[in-house]
Amino acid sequence: MSILSDLSERVPGRAHGPGANEYDAGRTVFAGVGEPDVVVRPHTVQEVAAAVGLAAASGLPIAVRSGGHGLMPVENGLVVDLAEFTSIEVGADGLVSVGAAAHWGDIAAALAPHGLAISSGDTRDVGVGGLALGGGIGWLVRQQGLTVDALREVELVTAAGEVLTVNADEHPDVFWALRGGGGNFGVVTRFVFQAVPGDGVVGGHLLFDTSDVPAVLRAWRDVMRAGPDELNSTLIVMPPFAPGMPVGPQLAVALQGGEERLRELLEPLLSLPSVTEATLGPVAYGDLLEDAPPGRPPLLFIGGNGFVPDLSDEALDAIARVYDRQVPTMVLLRALGGAFSRVAPDATAIAHRDAEALLIVNGVLLLDTPPEQVAAAKAGSDAALAFTTGTYGNFSVEHGEEVIAAMYPPATLERLRRIKAELDPGNVFRQNHNITPAG
Fold this sequence. Notes:
By secondary structure, this protein is of the alpha+beta class. The protein has 14 helices and 20 strands. Strand 2 (28-29) and strand 3 form a beta hairpin. Helix 1 packs antiparallel against helix 3 and helix 11 runs antiparallel to helix 12.
């Protein structure tokens, strides 16, 4: 019998092959369309366990789809599509139980009447599962830390088909690994987060021309270094990308506090001659989240990301230089510090806690760009990324041992491999930033 037939017997009505609408939905992710052997769309955790246990016993690789944003197209094996796991339950104590495929925009909307929020990334359409397991750098990162820092419990289906409740008291090593180790350890069907106050937010955007990008970078760094944890921001420096799109530095900012206080904190930026627009005012936390693009654009993005421990003048000069080159280059700086850096490096699998910012640098090229030009663009991006340590996996489209070694320091990776060997010795959960089992 085929795996599709076996799964159709084990989970009737839930296993889908080519030609079915559920198959097409499950194989489609942000980065493209894959060709898995079968897509299972379970309704209950017991159906997840049955499907995973059968696939693992057959040695079939298993990929897990929540929102489809962080997953690469799957070319074989089983896709567990958690599209029906979208429940959101808000408790009186601020604990929020969330299905793995709930979207962050829906969570923000459910929390708004309670005046609560969870640091949750930047877009409404991203599913909880991939973002949360990979870390989660959201609009409350300097107040609450990462999304994984707000995590209190998960429901996990292992490769053996067991259903575990995992938290700081039950299976604590697994709980540690799930907070940053990605989808390597099983299928998480439910998360429990601790929400925090999310009302009283002011925010908006500042736009600058390109007359003095280095001055904008320095002023932004100084503002964030002096600012309170309640001040969060992302600075993007955009190249000429498409007609009608703004070019140059763009600052997205949010503060829990008043508008007058926000303008006071931003004064070194607001007073720069290159400011072209400043739009600031009260905003709901959910409105800080943006709509995700429908799919990855047909372009080459040459660069990467990394944690910046010191936004020195030298580092900022290198960032300015990589923007001011012939290759159109997009630069993003996400402010960290605060609660993010008060978590011990060994408390979760995200160990690069000394970072002032996350830096993303991408040269933007056409798909048919000659290899020598691609290599030159990479060298330029690498010059700015030389000031980083480590890589944030949620923003990395590259895979392999070199990427894994950049994501996790040696001691962290060794511990992750040991836990992987206990939970998934056959490495069936390998369609991801794969952590191979210790051997």
